[in-house]
Design a protein that fits this description.
By secondary structure, this protein is mainly alpha-helical. 66% of the residues lie in helices and 0% in strands. The chain has 2 domains: 92 residues, Rna Polymerase Sigma Factor, Chain: A; 65 residues, Winged helix-like DNA-binding domain superfamily/Winged helix DNA-binding domain (Arc Repressor Mutant, subunit A).
Length: 186
């Protein structure tokens, strides 16, 4: 989804909206509704929660898109708005429903060759849901949304070294969950 064409189109739509073209916001919503929903869904407990959070995202976008200083950053900005809305939603959940969050600040660049077969997408999605939120969100942003480490750092408001560490430990944890769930060694 995050092809160069969609990024350029999103920038143009943001610029058109800032110049008074209300229809541009509708087109931006149509372009990003599905990817943002899937990103939010990986951070919420239920599909209904994800839809609620997504609705809040579009309210926030409507309020603030006109003031976005750099339309070149509109796509990472949309994901940051989505992340913040999901985190805000999580803060309002009863404590027992909130997943524990792991923080890791070591700068580790490589996952030492851990890879996953493409034909096991459902198992990967299920395993991803079992990871701590910080790992889940950086893995989603990096592999599924194809953001760079620096873009992810801006979205999650963490240093690039922390993002690299979460990627490293997240891949390892995902690998372990998959091994356990699939009942065989990789």
């Amino acid at each position: 989804m995050d092809s160069a064409k969609h990024i350029v189109e999103s920038r143009l739509l943001a610029l058109r909206y800032q110049k008074g073209d209300a229809a541009a916001l509708e087109q931006l919503v149509a372009l990003w509704q599905r990817p943002l929903f899937f990103f939010i869904r990986r951070m919420t407990a239920t599909e209904a929660d994800a839809w609620d959070v997504l609705q809040e995202v579009w309210v926030r976008v409507l309020r603030h898109l006109g003031k976005l200083r750099d339309v070149q950053c509109v796509v990472p900005w949309l994901y940051k708005v989505a992340r913040n809305a999901a985190m805000s939603h999580r803060r309002h959940l009863p404590r027992e429903e909130v997943l524990t969050e792991e923080t890791a600040d070591a700068a580790i660049d490589d996952a030492n060759g851990v890879c996953f077969p493409v034909d096991e997408a459902e198992a990967i999605r299920s395993a991803l849901d079992k990871l701590p939120l910080p790992q889940r969100e950086v893995l989603s942003l990096f592999f599924l949304e194809e953001f760079s480490v620096l873009e992810i750092a801006a979205i999650v408001e963490a240093p690039p070294g922390t993002v690299k560490s979460r990627l490293f430990y997240g891949k390892k944890a995902l690998f372990e969950v998959l091994k356990q769930e699939m009942g065989h060694e990789r």
